[in-house]
Amino acid sequence: MTKFYLTTAIDYVNGAPHIGHAYEKIQTDVLARHFRQRYDDVYFLTGTDEHGIKIQKTSAAKGITPKELCDENANKFKECWAGLDISYNQFIRTTDEQHEQIVQKIFKKLQENGDIYKHSYTGLYCSGCESFLNPRDLTEDGLCPDHLKKPEEVKEENYFFKLSKYKDRLVEHIKTHPEFIQPAFRANEVLNQLENIEDISVSRSKESVNWGIPVLGDDSQTIYVWIDALSNYITALGYDPVNPSEKFKRYWPADVQVIGKDILKFHAIYWPAFLMSLDLPLPKTIFAHGWITIDETKMSKSLGNVIAPKDVMEHFELSHPDAFRYFMMTAAPAGRDGNYSDNDFKEKVNADLANNIGNLLNRTLNMQVKYFDGEIKPEFITPADNEIAKAALAAVQAVKERFDKFEVAEAAQEIVNFSNTVNKYVNDTAPWGLAKEEKMLECAQVLYNVLESMRFIAAMLAPYCPNIAQDVYTQLNLEANPSDVKLDSLKWAQIPAGKITEKEKIKPVFLRVDSEIAGAAKKG
Fold it and tell me: Sign of dihedral through CA atoms 92, 94, 97, 98?
């Protein structure tokens, strides 16, 4: 396998990004960075969803055009992702001219295939969901369960997509492709939704929604959000029903599409049905992540607990986003909900990044200087048949297996587990005791094992913490970028003989958050 194509959901630009948005983008970025360490060609797509009634209303209230509002907020998302080191290859906006033109062609193709028809309809419309709801989906009080607002009764003549036509094929695909919906426990949820599936509206009256892509040949209708937004995953690649681009042919189907659990229905039912109608292969995996709460409470503007990533960065005076990235990726098991709190953040990053990984490197380098003047001699280099070398190679394999199941938090724990093993090895072998007993060769070989282990740890950690990983490599006097290291090429005993460091060059790769050392560094 040489290519890997992954996508995020595109964010609605009716507001600024918060840590819920960041959770998904960091997760997909960590996946992209990891798979770049394994495959030749990884393509990572993200972007913004910019049409619909909410944009229309918000821009009108602000006295600006919808496009001006979209431009303003799309830039906020781009700036936020830059600040979090999100390494996407392409940022698509649904107001991009190419996207709009291809969406019109897709709509026309679905019509030509006999899967779109016009129908008068009275339904309950939730503007928050941008979706029509069935009465059975509402709360006992007749409210949308997600937005707790009463949906509006809407009577329109719209275009509908024959979703029910694809019910049996979708059920069969889900049952015969267990990797299609991940985590696996989400599959039954989708199968239950498919039991009562109905055809869906794929356009709105222009009188109701004029900020959107017009239906070719019918000026009275605007293409509705789902065909518009979901199609970004192929329009970004230059899909065309008649003449698809080489880029599309190279990257489609997606290897994984990362989304929030609240939009799983649209990605696991609507989206594959559209693709079936277009006679296109389905994504290999739809991965639905959970939500991030704040102090165990769901984020809400009304509660005033919406946190932006830059709030955390500024509060803790972080010079780069690695600690925030690491915490977010370890906040929840794959597909489950997680929680952010300041105390949890401090405890986690201090324990794993400062005390465990950072301190392990720092004290080893100091012993290397103290006992050997920072030099590695040829006889210090150990062969790959020692227990720590075997544990390092096993850790790489364990991390890869976790990532193959998109278990990002669990993969991070495999790295920490290996770091714990190395810390225990240091305590058990006590190189300071060996030096005291003048067993200098044994002492040197123990230290070499630890330094080699740190090289492995940095490479595995790079997708989460690219800056810290680079600092580790710098401390080890290695010229390579750990983010560029291919995991399958990691071999033991690659730190060469020679001068590795000097006392004045040794410094912590991660300062404890809110600690005396961090405070002193800030004051200095």
Answer: positive
User: What amino acid is encoded at 268 in this protein?
Assistant: A
Known catalytic residue: 147? Answer: yes
Could you give the CA distance from residue 299 to residue 309 in angstroms, rounded to a whole number?
A: 13
* pLDDT digits 0-9 by tens, 279-295: 999 999 999 999 998 88
Name residue, tokens 């509206």: 201
494, 511, 480: which is closest to 322 by C-alpha?
511
Task: Tell me whether residue 18 is one of the annotated catalytic residues.
Answer: yes
SS3 assignment, position 82: helix
CA distance 329 to 319: 19
Count Cβ atoms below 10 Å from residue 217 Cβ, excluding itself: 10
If you average pLDDT over residues 39-65, what whole number do you get? 95
pLDDT above 70 as % of the chain = 97
Decide if 491 is catalytic: no
Q: Phi/psi of residue 120, each to 5°?
A: -80, 140
> pTM (2 decimals)?
0.93
The single residue of 34, 70, 99, 129 carrying the catalytic annotation is 129
Three-class DSSP category at 474: helix
> Per-residue b/e over 124-141, b at no fewer than 16 CB within 10 Å?
bbbbebbbbbeeebbeee
75: which residues sit within 8 A by CB, 6+ positions away? none
Q: How distant, in Å, are the alpha carbons of 6, 31, 45, 180, 484 from that of 255?
A: 6, 11, 12, 10, 21
Angle ∠(77,82,87) on CA atoms, nearest 5? 105
* The residue type at 66: P
Query: Is 298 one of the catalytic residues?
Result: yes
Catalytic residue from among 34, 78, 80, 144: 144
Q: Which residues pair with 45 in a beta bridge?
A: 7, 90
- Among residues 249, 298, 390, 503, the one annotated as catalytic is 298
Residues 62, 118, 119, 147: which is the catalytic one?
147
Residue 9 has pLDDT above 70, yes or no: yes
For the stretch 299-342, pLDDT in tens is 666 666 788 999 999 999 999 999 999 999 999 999 999 999 99
Active site residue 129: yes
Q: Is 70:50 a contact under the CB 8 Å cutoff?
A: yes
Neighbours of 209 (CB within 10 A): 23
Helix 408-429 with 359-372: angle, nearest 10 deg = 30
Structure tokens at 263: 């939009």
* C-beta of residue 158 within 8 angstroms of C-beta of residue 121: yes
DSSP state letters, 351-385: IIIIIIIIHHHHHHHHHHHHHHTTEE-GGGPPPTT
Q: Which of 70, 80, 126, 443 is catalytic?
A: 126
Q: Are 208 and 156 in contact (CB under 8 A)?
A: yes
Maximum CA extent, the chain:
90
pLDDT digits 0-9 by tens, 418-439: 999 999 999 999 999 999 999 9
Average pLDDT of the chain, as a whole number? 93
Residue 211, helix vs strand vs coil: coil
Measured between alpha carbons, how far is 455 from 476 in angstroms, rounded to an integer? 8
